[in-house]
Fold this sequence. Notes:
Layout: H1 8-31, H2 36-63, H3 72-81, H4 88-101, H5 110-136
Helix pairs in contact: 1-2, 1-5, 2-3, 2-5, 3-4, 4-5
Amino acid sequence: MKSMPPSCEDCFQEFKIALEDLQIFVKQARLRELSESRKRELIANFEVAHELALKVIKSYLKRCGKGPFTGSRDLTVEAFHADLIDDGKAWLDMVIDRIQYNPIYELDKQPEFFENIVKKYTRLLDRFEDTMDKILA
Length: 137
């Protein structure tokens, strides 16, 4: 028996919970230096929140009759065109940072990736939450 895919609203609720978790880590990082293991936890929380944001975008765009999309870059570009996100370049930078952080690559991207999450990416996810709150209200 097939189960129904989660609704856009359900996906959004999951995203909001993940974003709250991420915000707790970011708040701690702004107050004091985190240990390496806490930094890795923050990055993992960010990746979950970002993945759930992409799931919300995909679900919303599907509801609007758009798609399918071949990956997170295409999805991000379409989200920008649909005014779901307000800074397409920064969102694409997020996607690229996640790809480069992947342990398959030899680059040591953790320090830069961590800083970008704390200083830029969490704000982008916050603004996305505000936008989707208005759209789904």
